[in-house]
Write a structure and sequence with these properties.
The protein has a four-stranded mixed sheet. A two-stranded antiparallel sheet has the order 1-2. Strands 7-8 form a two-stranded antiparallel ribbon. By secondary structure, it is α+β, with helices and mostly antiparallel strands. It contains seven helices and eight strands.
Amino acid sequence: MMKTITSCLWINTTCSLIFRTYKREVQWLQLSERFIMLLLQYFKFHIISALLALEVSGKAKFPEDDLPGIFFVNNPKLNKLTGSEREELPGQAGDLGGSGAINLGDTEDYGGDIPNCGTSMTAKQRETLLEIHNKYRSEVAKGEYTIKTPKGKFRSLPPATRMYKLKYNCSLENSAVKWAIETKCKMIHTKGASYGENLFLAWGDTRPNRSDYAAASAPSSWSEEIRKFGISTLDEWRREIGHATQVFTARTKWIGCGIHTCGDTLSLVCHYYPGGNIVGVDMYTPGKTLSECGKNASNENLDENTGLCI
């Protein structure tokens, strides 16, 4: 009897020791896994930046169809440019011989009116897209775009010296409609384009006026990215804010958008010229609102109500 009891006690003690050891091992593995995940998150931005640098130099290929916008060669001297000098930068990759180049022409001006471009886009959709884009650009230009800091406080982005009021353009609308149709409602970016590009997809909405809702929700969603995810510097790029940085590119003057539906999926594409998302270059020049409008910063052609140059 005593031998049996002793054996049971020994087995129980041994099992308890094994269990405690196993439990410590499991806890250690869990902590190790958490540490590795935190480490990966810490280096995520640096890894993406390195890949983008290699992509620009032609030494590596980054999945273009997963990137919001088009990227340029990094040049630290470019951030020292004034607002007017920044406009002399080349367009997008298409200006260097890419396949996505289009010819806007400096004379394609509709006197501030929104044109009828002869596509499936309606006048209401064009007006909505243009109005919301300029609403957010105005907030930024006047220093009224607020973002939440990591400490839970709020701060405003600095005002812009030379932020243009966007005009609507039929060449850009035609290219946007064409791309929305060609990609069959998939999130694929144009390769080698001479313009900036933002994409928006919506699923499961079968309302007859869903295109009108998309025209309102897409630019708002893009423009809220920085408010939602934050930004440290005006030349910062992250996947989460890549659409907003295009919307807030000061030198962009024209916009055109297209909408296409594939069953219950809707694709909205907007093209911008000149394009933004230049690696290492600020979205805009910070400073006194409207202080660099007009030729040679002559303070001409400005809209004091919106804080945008015209």
